[in-house]
């Protein structure tokens, strides 16, 4: 048996943050066309896999209780999809998901969990799979999977399958905040008033935090008005983040998580401490995104 069979492989499943999200159209099959600047945080869930006598799946962490541990879970769908393609290498596994990201919060938790599961099992099962094949496998699980498998700053187009990696991206201190409300992504897209918006402007070279903020000033999250209509309490989160005097505040994805950008890690940490003191029941995380690996 392979040496890797005795290992426990543990990977972070980072929060996926849409710094900008433009809705540019809709296909005949109902999928919306997007242009999005996407980065991945240094904070997220954690997936651990190890060999076992029989398959098992355990969830822990502050949000583990909010998910179902059945076939609807993307972690198990990822395991089963990879096993179908590589049945001779796919021995039984124990999978643990430490859930630190809130559910239905616009930061790609489920997709990132599934992507981390695929990467961990590919390592544990000693599978060789070309990148295009892995991308196709991921896309069959969800439109966000290809970008989560890449896990680097990128521009995503189409329904999320057309990826352009950004060669250089600065260290970006951020705070993530969610007031505890969940919002349905299909409902948000259904509530859109306009679906044919301009694409993202051309991306300049980004050397510093100020370059990122200047670029973002000329972009939008086109899902924000629809999310606000469905969940007015989102304004509470935005107001709280603005009170910490950041460089920029915006909603990520379809919500309800918002992010704020700061000029230093120390400023982000201080802002998060203030928010935790005033909103102790909220999800608050001070972290970073950028070109570092996760």
Molecular structure report:
This protein is of the alpha+beta class and 294 residues long. The protein has two domains: 3-165, Ribosomal Protein S5, domain 2 (2-Layer Sandwich); 172-289, Alpha-Beta Plaits, CATH 3.30.70.890. It has nine helices and ten strands. The strands form two sheets. Strands 1, 2, 3, 4, 5 and 6 form a six-stranded mixed β-sheet that branches. The protein has a four-stranded antiparallel β-sheet with strand order 8-9-7-10. β5 (154-158) and β6 (162-165) form a beta hairpin. α1 (74-85) runs parallel beside α2 (109-124). The protein is globular. The model has no long low-confidence stretch (mean pLDDT 94).
The N- and C-terminal alpha carbons lie at a distance of 30 Å
Radius of gyration: 19 Å
User: What is the number of helices?
Assistant: 9
Supply the number of structural domains.
2
Number of strands: 10
Order of helices and strands, N to C? EEEHEHHHEEEHHHHEEHE
Mean pLDDT across the residues is 94
Question: What is the overall silhouette?
Answer: globular
CATH-scheme architecture of the largest domain = 2-Layer Sandwich
CATH class value of the largest domain: Alpha Beta
What's the main sheet like? 6 strands, mixed
Question: What percent strand?
Answer: 25-35%
Assign a percent range to the helix content: 25-40%
CATH topology of the largest domain: Ribosomal Protein S5, domain 2
Flag low-confidence runs. none
SS-derived structural category = alpha+beta
């Amino acid at each position: 048996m392979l040496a890797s069979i005795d290992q426990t492989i543990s990977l972070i499943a980072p929060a996926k943050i849409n710094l900008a999200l433009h809705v540019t159209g809709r296909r005949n099959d109902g999928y919306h066309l997007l242009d999005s600047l996407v980065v991945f945080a240094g904070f997220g869930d954690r997936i651990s896999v190890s060999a076992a006598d029989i398959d098992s799946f355990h969830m822990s962490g502050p949000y583990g209780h909010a998910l179902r541990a059945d076939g609807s879970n993307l972690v198990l769908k990822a395991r089963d999809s990879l096993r179908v393609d590589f049945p001779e290498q796919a021995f039984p596994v124990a999978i643990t998901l430490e859930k630190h990201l809130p559910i239905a919060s616009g930061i790609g938790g489920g997709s990132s969990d599934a992507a981390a599961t695929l990467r961990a099992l590919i390592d544990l099962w000693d599978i060789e799979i070309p990148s295009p094949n892995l991308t196709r496998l991921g896309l069959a699980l969800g439109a966000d999977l290809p970008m989560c498998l890449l896990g680097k700053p990128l521009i995503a187009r189409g329904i999320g399958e057309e990826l352009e990696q950004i060669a250089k991206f600065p260290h970006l201190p951020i705070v993530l905040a969610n007031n505890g409300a969940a919002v349905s992504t299909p409902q948000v897209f259904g509530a859109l008033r306009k679906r044919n918006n301009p694409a993202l402007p051309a991306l300049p070279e980004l050397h510093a935090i100020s370059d990122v903020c200047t670029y973002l000033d000329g972009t939008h999250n086109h899902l924000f008005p629809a999310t606000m209509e469905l969940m007015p309490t989102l304004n509470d989160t935005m107001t709280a983040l603005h009170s910490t005097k950041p460089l920029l505040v915006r909603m990520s994805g379809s919500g309800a998580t918002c992010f704020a950008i700061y000029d230093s890690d120390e400023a982000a940490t201080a802002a998060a401490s203030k928010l935790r003191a005033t909103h102790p029941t909220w999800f608050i995380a001070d972290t970073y995104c950028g070109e570092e690996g996760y």
